Amino acid sequence: MMKKKLENDVAAVTRAFVDGVAGALGSKLYGIYMYGASVFDDGGPIQDIDCHVIVNEPLRDAERNLLMALFERIAEDHGSLGGEVDAYFILLDDATGAAPPHNQLKDLFDESWALHCAHIRAGRYLTLRGPEPTDIFPAPTWPQVAAALLHELDYVRGELDYPAYCVLNLCRIVHSFTEHDAVKSKHGSGEWASSEFPAWKPLIQAAMRHYSKTADADDESVLREQVRDFLAFAEDCIGRIQEH
């Protein structure tokens, strides 16, 4: 596992989350594993907290209600970061397979499962509770990773009203395809893309300033006006990489 000291606000949210989940699920809880920007040295400002909660048995409605109340309580007690805990609750049996697992809390599947597995297998995680994940989160193949990256590209197409997120996520997707490696952070990929594609550096840096809460009105205008062009550029880059 990663040996990394979490920022105070992130640590406070994770403690509240772990304690609350353990209280709600008891022996049904197998483990909680955190990934995302918090575990990257180049991850940049922490906008949310991403994790998988592994459970031994399916959740009951009463447990789902307790968990939903926990999310609301954390959001009330810990400000904006508390409202950005993004957790998949998945069965232990599903966590050993390659297929996107079903979220026990909400009716959806983790379509980015291959990317999450790649991060875990590369050691980009923190064990918040439970054993080390040596027998779960299988190592994905590149076709599985590529399919998950293309799913994220499709998701970006529907999120253009959030241009800073889209720009940096596009940087990460292009970076991953270029280096045949899914274990990349959005912030680090923004730095990479700023150097690799200097014509887009002003846009990318505007997105990074948005994340660090130092963007001005000009930055926000640039993001709104250029995000669609950057999407087209990223799609072209990815298409050319896939042709080879």
CATH superfamily of the largest domain: Beta Polymerase, domain 2
- The tally of structural domains comes to 2
What CATH calls the topology of the largest domain is Beta Polymerase, domain 2
What distance separates the N and C termini? 35 Å
The number of distinct helices, counting runs of at least 4 residues, comes to 9
Mean pLDDT value: 92
Main beta sheet: strand number and arrangement? 4 strands, mixed
Strand order of the largest sheet: 3-2-1-4
Which H/E pattern describes the elements? Answer: HEEHHEHEHHHHH
CATH architecture type of the largest domain: 2-Layer Sandwich
* CATH class descriptor of the largest domain: Alpha Beta
Give start-end ranges of low-pLDDT stretches. none
Textual characterization of the structure:
This protein is of the alpha+beta class and 244 residues long. It has two domains: 8-129, Beta Polymerase, domain 2, CATH 3.30.460; 142-243, no CATH class. Helices cover 53% and strands 10% of the residues. It contains nine helices and four strands. The protein has helices at 8-25, 61-77, 79-82, 113-121, 142-157, 163-179, 186-196, 201-211, 217-243, and strands at 29-35, 49-55, 85-91, 126-129. The chain has a four-stranded mixed β-sheet, with helices on both faces. The longest helix has 27 residues, at 217-243. The radius of gyration is 18 Å and the shape is globular.
